[in-house]
Structure formats: C-alpha cells, structure tokens
Amino acid sequence: MELTVLGVLEFASIALGIKALDEMVKVAPIQILEAKTMCPGKYLIVFTGDVASVEYSFNKGMETGQSHIIDYLLLPMVHPQVVAAIGKINKTDLWDAIGIIETLSVVSSIEAADIAAKKGGVSIVEIRLAIGFGGKSYVKMMGSLDEVQAAMESGVVLAKEKELLCMDVIIPQPHKEIKPFFM
Question: What's the gap between Cα 63 and its chain centre?
Fold first, then answer.
C-alpha cells in the first residue's frame, strides 16, 4: 500500500484519545504509526493508509475528541521522508549542515518536516514526537548549507504563523565529535 496520506491528532485528554483510537480503527483500515501518552497529559495518534480510510478515521477522531483536540493534521501527499523519520533516526552521509526546528506541538513539527522535505535537497533525519519534552517536538534535517537554509525557512513559516515555534537553529559545518549523536 502506498502511504501518501498522514493523519495526526493531539488530544488534551488521555482517556478521550484512547477512545478515539479504538473508534478510528473500527471505522476504517488504517496503519497506526504512533499512539501514546505524552507530556503534559496529552494523547497522540499518528496514522496513515489510503485516502478514504485516513479521512474516515480522521473525521471519527475529530468527532470523538471535539473540544479536547489540541492540534490536528490531515496531510495528503505527505513526503515519504516524513513517514520514515517519525520517531526514528535515519542514516545519511550528508554532514555539511544541520537544521533543527523545535515546536510546541507534534503536528507543527510534522508540518515543518513535510514542507522542508518538499523544498528539496535535505534529508529529514529525525522527527522526535514530544515524549519527555514537555509536549515539544522537533525535526532534524541535514544537507548542504544552502539547502538546509532554504528548507528551514520554508519549514519555520507555518510554525510561526500558528505561534508554535519554540526555536530554529542551523549548525554549519558541525564538528565530527557530535556525529554519533545524530546518526
């Protein structure tokens, strides 16, 4: 199955998040990428699948969560690097520059990663999803300095518009001693 649609729901209630998860998988066949509690007392569901299934499940989750939804995302045509980087570290040989976008929600981090990846030229190395970070999330990307700068500019815009940007940093020519912590 081609995974081209991504759905993300962040709930303010753990109990409602778990209830929504159950209802979402009952209404359509989706693949759950992440379903977990997060600091401070939130619940996260990240899922993918075919367009119709993701839309049905997304709508069911929104209906269940109602006013307890903190942030949400229904992303058609998600960049393949984004799905591959959620909660994982992807290896890359690129080591010219590192870009990091730190956000106050998981959704804004995933959106920033997708926009940055679509800008092109960078490798999305990791999207860390708010566990143990007080609800924050971040995306790390690597590539040439010019490509990282362009991707970062694109990725930061939406997080700033939503007032969910915590910090954005570019590290040109990172020292080789920090490489083991990025790979």
Answer: 22
- Give 10-residue mean pLDDT values along the chain (183 residues): 80 96 97 90 93 96 95 93 87 88 92 93 89 81 95 93 94 89 71
Q: Which domains does the chain have, with CATH numbers?
A: 5-76 (3.30.70.1710), 80-181 (3.30.70.1710)
Report how far residue 108's alpha carbon sits from residue 106's, in angstroms, rounded to the nearest whole number: 6
Q: Choose among 132, 6, 7, 10: nearest CA to 81.
A: 6
The H or E element that residue 23 is part of is helix 14-27
Q: For residue 122, give the 3-state DSSP assignment.
A: coil
Beta-carbon contacts of 93 under 8 Å, excluding residues fewer than 6 positions away, are none
- The label of the residue with tokens 């959704």 reads 107
106-143 burial, b at 16+ Cβ within 10 Å, e below that, comes to bbbbbbbbbbbbebeebbbbbbbbbeebebbbbbbbbb
Best CA proximity match to 64, nearest among 108, 9, 7, 110: 9
The confidence score (pLDDT) of residue 183 equals 66
> CB count, 10 Å around CB of 34?
16
